[in-house]
Amino acid sequence: MDAVNMLVLSLPGAAITYYGEEIGMVDNDDITYENGKDPNGLNFPPEHWHNKSRDFERTPFQWNASTNAGK
């Protein structure tokens, strides 16, 4: 991940880093329809919610008490 970030930042143009991307964080797929909070996603029925909701991208940073905060 460090090498990719170094390459992106050394290329010409504007470098954009999204939330969690700098530590290689992936989306959280453990959210259920009942726990969903995205108003746009909840407008869809449960069978289509997983494809329409933004809740999976809106999770907190994945920290823990281990070395380097788990990453």
Note down, in words, how this protein is organized.
- The chain has 71 residues and is mainly α.
- It has one domain.
- The protein is flat.
How does the SSE layout of this entry go?
Elements: H1 2-10, H2 46-52
Count of β-strands: 0
* Alpha carbon gyration radius: 16 Å
The number of distinct helices, counting runs of at least 4 residues, comes to 2
What proportion of the residues form beta strands (DSSP E)? under 5%
Termini distance? 11 Å
Number of domains: 1
Approximate helicity band? 10-25%
Q: Globular, elongated, flat, extended or rod-shaped: what is the shape?
A: flat
**Contiguous runs where pLDDT drops below 50 for at least 5 residues:** none
| Element string (H = helix, E = strand) | HH
Query: What structural category characterises the helix and strand content?
Result: mainly alpha
Report the biggest beta sheet as strand number plus sense, adding barrel if it closes: none
Mean pLDDT over the residues = 82
Overview features:
mainly alpha; 2 helices; 71 residues; 23% helix
Can you describe this structure in just a few lines?
This protein has helices at 2-10, 46-52. By secondary structure, the protein is an all-alpha fold.
